[in-house]
């Protein structure tokens, strides 16, 4: 290694800070300590104000200015006691990341310094929004957007060396009311789904005031040495390696999943968990993932907007703690070719205000039909809007993962498990199978044969799986904001619930028995949605063919998937539920497409640069070494035939690399104009640029395998993954 990257210093190997900070505080004390949650509010607010804010959180009632002032004052006091100097609205612009702009609490009163934070500042702020993407919704001269406090997601403190910052989760909208962020649409879908589901529950004879969609994100990531990361400009700039030969071991031995977590990673996780707990993120699970140096962290589920915020925050914590400990966290969906990629399984369900899970098959007979109703609604939703769900996870990065024989394919289908499928089939045919099923199918009132977890969780290949009492949307990418796919899922389910409710209402109006009517609606919905159910192996080629026969879309890449957002029926759906107007959806389409184009462009430029400045120079030195060896061999009368053919093969590989390099250059030069023809440009990226890059990679990787390790300019896969 020329770069001196090969061996890690002992200091970075053994971790840095905080072995000492380890759990002196109890977990319970730590949890939420840096978060201004309900209990802190209750302690600090006069009762009527606390009740007002509670009803704002629970049912979205508007908070009066007097109460807002009181909340702001209490928040400020709480933050100042903890050393805060600043506050910020924290929001999620359409870049998919988070953004913040800090103001100090400092105010001058007749030249005297005081701290001040009023209700108005809590509720609304105005960052300079002109440089955030708006997809053409605003021209810069009317760039004003404002952030507005989202009281349903608790404020928290972010520490730094010079005092901490009170961070207030917010939405980001334009003055004309357009959503300029990923969160506003999610909040809107929560409201709609709640309305639809409570209405359905009422029709089924149960009173619910509110239904929350719930989310638990399983976050996957890789950890690599920071020095190695810094020596790989591709990782640093694009998040993934655009070159690199996979080591022979790879993960064929499959010995890593749930394997022993090495102590360095464990130290990292421990520090992440403590930071997360302090912020009220209920991290629960940690383990090794399939690939070497790949890990997962999962919290206990929360209301969907809180979980989405907390996942963004968790990604920040992962980055921050990694940096502190001489590591780099890779959140990219496919940092290493030929090695398992990373996802963010989104565990999703719905629950009422008493915490009853609507997708819990459960032991209460009178709730079975209700469970089946919502199950059928989700099936309908995914069947009708599977392509929309696919669009919600589309990105340049996720393209490398979806369908890569390790992750769910780009074809969306639902795994129900044999047991549940059997129950629905029996219902469909009114076919009495087992006794328990028979009783159930006939009356809808007997106990639903228990859906055991081990019956439902075996299939890891499905993009959308029922796992006992929730659905697990597995196609979501590890680095993406979950707000987009979750908003899409929510709106799709809302539509289906409404449709099933309408049918149920008609039957009830016609005087049908309630249970019979619900079962009839379930039967009908299942019949229609059945093609979406697939319990087999999603990785096989047979499924691709079978899915085509069933008429399920196979949107293999991002431009194909994003096209869905431009369809009239999709625009109508978003409009109907007041989630996004047509032009707001257009804006998202444009931004996502632009991001896709830009990312691949950057990858191509990066790849060219690394080949030109790293790979080829190393190859020329290798070639010179070979030539010198050949010369000396012939000089001493040796037989150099073997060396000669080695050399020729090497030179061929170099020539192939230069050829391929020119291919990528040409692809960069010749594509359609990204600004004026973004879709054509994106197709060109997929159809021309990616194959050209693949070819260059193959050629350069061949050279890597044949070149003196000491000459190689970049940390290798072997080093990054196995050392
Ligand atoms: P797995 O075997 O898939 O890891 P877990 O039981 O560990 O399953 O759950 C994974 C995630 O699912 C966790 O974040 C958990 O809190 C979440 N989860 C469990 N129940 C629900 C629910 N009703 N709604 C949303 N998420 C849930
Ligand atoms: Mg899971």
> Quick one: biggest sheet?
9 strands, mixed
Helix content: 40-55%
Number of helices: 25
CATH superfamily of the largest domain: Glutamine synthetase/guanido kinase, catalytic domain
Average the pLDDT over all residues and give the rounded result: 88
Morphology? globular
- The name of the CATH architecture of the largest domain is 2-Layer Sandwich
Radius of gyration equals 28 Å
Strand content: 5-15%
The helix/strand class is alpha+beta
- CATH C-level name of the largest domain: Alpha Beta
Structure report:
The chain is of the alpha+beta class and 723 residues long. It folds into 3 domains: 2-178, Ubiquitin-like (UB roll); 190-242 and 252-434 and 454-580, Creatine Kinase, Chain A, domain 2 (2-Layer Sandwich); 595-722, Four Helix Bundle (Hemerythrin (Met), subunit A), CATH 1.20.120. It contains 25 helices and 18 strands. Strands 10, 11, 12, 13, 14, 15, 16, 17 and 18 form a 9-stranded mixed beta sheet that branches. Strand 11 and strand 12 (294-299) form a beta hairpin. The longest helix has 54 residues, at 582-635. The radius of gyration is 28 Å and the shape is globular. The protein starts with 9 loop residues before the first helix and ends with a helix. The structure holds adenosine-5'-diphosphate and magnesium ion. Adenosine-5'-diphosphate binds at residues 214-216, 218, 285, 298-301, 347-349, 357, 467, 469-470.
């Amino acid at each position: 290694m020329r770069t001196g990257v090969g061996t890690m210093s002992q200091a970075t190997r053994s971790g840095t800070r905080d072995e000492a900070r380890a759990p002196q505080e109890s977990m319970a004390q730590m949890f939420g300590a840096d978060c201004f949650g309900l209990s802190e509010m209750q302690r600090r607010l006069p009762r009527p104000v606390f009740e007002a804010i509670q009803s704002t959180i629970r049912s979205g009632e508007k908070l009066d200015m007097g109460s807002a002032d009181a909340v702001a004052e209490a928040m400020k006091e709480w933050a100042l006691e903890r050393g805060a100097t600043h506050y910020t609205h924290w929001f999620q612009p359409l870049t998919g990341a988070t953004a913040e702009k800090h103001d100090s609490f400092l105010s001058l009163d007749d030249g005297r310094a005081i701290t001040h934070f009023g209700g108005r500042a809590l509720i609304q702020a105005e960052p300079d929004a002109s440089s955030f993407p708006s997809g053409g919704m605003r021209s810069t001269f009317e760039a004003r957007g404002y952030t507005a406090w989202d009281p349903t997601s608790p404020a928290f403190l972010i520490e730094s060396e010079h005092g901490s910052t009170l961070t207030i989760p917010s939405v980001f909208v334009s003055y004309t009311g357009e959503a300029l962020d990923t969160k506003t649409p999610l909040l809107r879908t929560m409201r709609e789904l709640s309305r639809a589901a409570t209405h359905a529950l009422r029709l089924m004879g149960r009173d619910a005031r509110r239904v929350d969609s719930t989310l638990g994100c399983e976050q996957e990531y890789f950890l690599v040495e920071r020095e190695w990361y810094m020596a790989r400009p591709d990782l640093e700039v694009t998040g993934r390696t655009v070159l690199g030969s996979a080591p022979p071991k790879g993960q064929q031995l499959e010995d890593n999943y749930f394997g022993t977590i090495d102590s360095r990673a464990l130290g990292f996780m421990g520090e992440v968990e403590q930071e997360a707990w302090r912020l009220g993120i209920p991290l629960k699970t940690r383990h090794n993932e399939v690939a070497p140096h790949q890990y997962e962290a999962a919290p206990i589920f929360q209301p969907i907007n809180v979980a989405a915020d907390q996942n963004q925050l968790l990604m920040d914590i992962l980055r921050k703690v990694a940096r502190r400990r001489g590591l780099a966290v890779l959140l990219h969906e496919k940092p290493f070719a030929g090695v398992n990629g990373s996802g963010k399984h989104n565990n999703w369900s719905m629950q009422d205000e008493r915490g009853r899970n609507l997708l819990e098959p459960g032991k209460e007979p009178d709730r079975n039909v209700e469970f089946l109703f919502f199950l059928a609604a989700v099936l309908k939703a995914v069947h009708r809007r599977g392509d929309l769900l696919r669009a919600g996870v589309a990105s340049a990065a996720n393209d490398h993962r979806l369908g890569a024989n390790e992750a769910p394919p780009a074809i969306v289908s639902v795994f129900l498990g044999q047991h549940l499928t059997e129950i629905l089939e029996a219902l469909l045919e009114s076919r009495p199978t087992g006794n328990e099923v028979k009783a159930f199918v006939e009356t809808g009132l007997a106990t639903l044969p228990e859906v055991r977890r081990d019956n439902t969780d075996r299939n890891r290949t499905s993009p959308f799986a029922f796992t006992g009492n929730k659905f697990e949307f597995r196609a979501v990418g590890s680095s993406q904001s979950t707000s987009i796919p979750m908003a899409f899922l929510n709106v799709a389910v809302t539509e289906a619930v409404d449709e099933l409710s309408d049918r149920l209402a008609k039957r009830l109006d016609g005087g049908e028995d309630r249970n019979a009517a619900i079962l009839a609606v379930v039967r009908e919905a299942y019949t229609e949605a059945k093609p979406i159910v697939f319990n087999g192996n999603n990785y096989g080629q047979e499924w691709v063919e079978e899915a085509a026969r069933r008429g399920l879309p196979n949107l293999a890449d991002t431009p194909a998937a994003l096209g869905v957002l431009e369809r009239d029926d999709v625009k109508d759906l978003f409009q109907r539920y007041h989630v996004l107007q047509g032009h707001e959806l257009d804006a998202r389409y444009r931004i996502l497409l632009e991001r896709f184009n830009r990312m691949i462009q950057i990858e191509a430029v990066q790849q060219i640069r690394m080949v030109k400045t790293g790979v080829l120079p190393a190859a020329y030195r290798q070639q010179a070494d070979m030539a010198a060896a050949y010369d000396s061999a012939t000089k001493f009368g040796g037989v150099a035939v073997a060396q000669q053919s080695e050399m020729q093969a090497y030179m061929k590989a170099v020539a192939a690399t230069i050829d391929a390099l020119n291919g990528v250059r040409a692809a960069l030069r010749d594509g359609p104009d990204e600004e004026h023809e973004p879709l054509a440009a994106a197709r060109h990226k997929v159809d021309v640029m990616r194959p050209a890059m693949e070819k260059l990679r193959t050629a350069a990787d061949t050279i890597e395998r044949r070149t003196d390790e000491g000459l190689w300019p970049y940390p290798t896969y072997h080093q990054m993954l196995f050392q």
